[in-house]
Amino acid sequence: MSAGRAARIRQLVISVVVGAVCLWFxxxxxxxxxxxxxxxxxAIVDATLRVPAWSWGVFFGLxxxxxxxxxxxxxxxxxxxxxxxxxxxxxxxxxxxxxxxxFFLPFRLGECLRPNxxxxxxxxxxxxxxxxxxxxxxxxxxxxxxxxxxxLLFSPFEWPAWVRAGGVSARVFFGGAVVGLVGAML
Length: 186
Fold this sequence. Notes:
The protein is mostly helical. The protein contains 7 helices and no strands. The radius of gyration is 20 Å and the shape is globular.
């Protein structure tokens, strides 16, 4: 077995172990309702399997649409940075790998993959790619907090004060990031 292949197998094993540990932390102590008892893994699997099949299809379709829209948004950002737009195939390949890395690596370490892939393919420098990634995270944060604000406005439930404070804090944080990025641009 070659050294490169052994290294890839070792990386795969490590990533599976890290993923399993993260899943254990995520589902540890999941309860049935607010005051219910902790659910077993079998109960969680059973509840997941009871979800209607059509909703899985709708979820998958919406996921694909949002991924394609994010790829197009990235292409526009690259055009703004480099005055040339990468091809759809390159954009889809780079962003698909980067999205997978963000989901599979802890602490969003996958965010570092896209700038490096861009530099390797000659699309833009790694530092410009990192700037595009930072801009994208700020835009995502603003959109998510705006949608959270709409949810709070139109929700029939009375939310605790700490939930509202968290939403306002997130809007202030991402709004400040926008102001900082615009200031850096000027």
